[in-house]
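Technical note accompanying the year-one report. For the benefit of new consortium partners, we illustrate the data format agreed upon in the data management plan: each record pairs a sequence with a structure-token string. No post-processing was applied to the example shown here.
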Amino acid sequence: MNPQIEAISAMPNNGKPTYLLVVLHGWGANYQDFVPFAKVLNFPGFGYIFPNAPFEHFQVPGGRAWYALETNEFDGLSTSRQILLDWLVSLESSTGVPLNKTVLAGFSQGGAMTLDVGLTLPFAALCSLSGYLHYQPQFQEDKIYPPTIIIHGRQDPVVPLKAAIKARDELSKVGVSVKYQEFDMGHEVQEPAIALFKQFITENILE
């Protein structure tokens, strides 16, 4: 098996984006999951890229995984981390948009990958939707992190709210500037959460 990343993209009419939004899907979904975001968000000058996780899901036909969650070993995480890192770094050459004008967002397991790989690169901003931490952040002297927003549902039955609170607290301890918001929703992204995400991007990228 040679895992790799495929992606769907939606670009401005002139084909030359000024900014990029990359959205990582959750465990068992695939790159089609957040394609509607492009029309819903409709940021001026943005291109949108939706990558497929590198591994087939063990149970869901057509589903993908960033790493295994059916065991406690997180099998495939180190491989997926490196594949995603290399792919993200390559985006500037294929799109013309540097990382400092690129926003990385992710849902659930994709949110966990965002809070992992995303904090190692000079992104414009990061967003974790219904995500969690799968590693222990370590303080790094003089490290500058992208502004980060964590959005989570109070009634999330899949990734408990305490996982989002832990992510907020652990990342804040090592110097990440975290905006945190809970909503009355489950394991999903409802309109109020999308509105907050749009506001966060506007304030941090477009103003």
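Partners are asked to follow this layout when depositing records. Residues 7-206 form a domain with the Rossmann fold fold (CATH 3.40.50.1820).
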